[in-house]
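Q: What would this complex look like in 3D?
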Amino acid sequence: MRANFFIVSALFLDTWGGDVIIDIVPGAGPNGGNALKSSAPRPWSDQTQAQVLNTDCVSAGERIAFSAKIKSNANCLIYSWDSTKRCNDIILHTNKGGVREYHRVATITADTPDAGGWHHVHGIHVHTGNGEKADLTKIYFADANTGWDVYTADVKAYVLEQNCQALVLNSDMEEKDLYWSYTDRDRSKIKVITPGAGGDGHALRVYARDHAWRGFRQLLDSRCFASGEEFTINAKFRLTDASLAGVTCDPNYQWNSNEGTQCPSVVVYGKKCPGGDVYQQFWNAISVRTL
Amino acid sequence: MFDLALLPELSKNSPNELLLQDKTWSAQGWNNYETTFVVNDALAACGQVELYIHQVNKNWNIEIDDVQISRRSTLAPSLTPTAAPTEFANPGSSSPTEVPTAVPTLSTVTSCPPIEEYVELPAGPVMLERSSTLCIITKADVDSNGTKTEIAPVARSFNGGDWEKHAGEFAEGLLYGKTFGDYTQGCQITLPELAAGQKYFISSYVDSSARRLNQADEEKKAIARLMQQSTFGTTLADFEGWNRGPVTQESAAEWVKEQMLLPLTSHREYLRKRTNPRWVLFCTVDVLTSVLSPFYSTYLVPVDL
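A: Here is my prediction, written as structure tokens for the whole assembly.
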């Protein structure tokens, strides 16, 4: 169940910065619906369409999911940091008593847009103490070339309910890459592939990796991790080479080597911890030779 | 006890054979992954927790599906609690006497490889076992032929001690702001990413002093250390004049006692003759001792001036 508290409507449209022209374009949306356009030239790369949010119902520590469809009149580079070529991300700005925060809450994960040229930008954000009941909370679409028009549609922001029985969201990839992201920007690419492990549906592939560290990640609900709780991790993995031929790893090689034969493992990575980051890596218990 | 009769397949295969067949990796199909873990105090204290699937050969693609983390247990009580405890469970028990050690945060502990074997260490978090030999992590520039140049030490552990940053500008700069977390099973640090063509290596070394010194040299080293610590500057003659055998508490005490019985010589006089030849006497010992501290009146003699 999702608690939507944010619905795009012409009544609530706004801009980030002045001198930005925005228009509702009927029929330009992903399914023939409306799209919102901020027209080039835009004065600054982060000056686009925006909206003020009321997040008074969200407490610090709760997770907010952001999702939107976005495209421009030029082919942006999804993973690039180059301000003249990159695609838009969603930035969340809060101001509470003069304390300003800016969070990059949603980015594009998958490497290809849909047939209409729309990219899916999405992400999960943990609401901060300074964001709780802030004087101003606003999202905008930042960082694309100022010479490009920016179209947005299907913009959503919703609170994710706590579910400690199933921590991974979109675990079967049936919502494609939603909630999933890369470990490091511009160091690998992610593709939605078909069919998935069951012979249908979807799966995700990370490729063009420049280091063993590159892979997938998803923000989990840290409130579920109480000391002494026991969790089971399940997954299905496949490894391929650059030509997409299957490759074999060695379940007994349990060493993180950049070009080693180790099989996939799962890492639960704690951050913002009192004693520094907590990195717990778990090898496959059912593929280790125990005799 | 493992009951072989419960596994009918074992009648066709030896136990090892069966398990090895079950636990190999299929290159063509999807491979199941499963494990369990218990949340420790360190993880429970974190403000943000993320799932990572990575640490695979960089030349391979990783494909994932049906990834889930499910809670197996609950900490909630299974019975309705009583209003108040009716009795002490164990009146004789006492509080724990020791503070528990911190829980290791990485499940994999990296040991130091054998001497002269260089093992590549990827960037990122690593739990390092304390080393009884001298174990050093180095950075090296590696060319296409595998030749290592520009080798610089980064961190070290020896004599079973905690891992620490290595001395030197490179290590200080690279690990600026980073500290080793000390745990029961080892020391953890996140090694930063290096520039292209650079890699980390971990290797053991024989301590140079241990390799070079025999018993006689060790005794000379002890004599030199004693004289260095107890004199203003030892001489080769003093050093070679030592005739008391190995340095022990007794022999050192005898030597100090003997030194104190020798005629007094002035280090200050020695120094002045060589460092300040134009110094002009402008006052006498009497003048100084009358106006200055008891130190001067006690320890200054005319030859000092």
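A: To summarize the key features: Residues 67 and 122 of chain A are 4 Å apart (CA to CA). Residues 1-11 of chain A have pLDDT under 50 and may be disordered.
Q: Very helpful, thank you.
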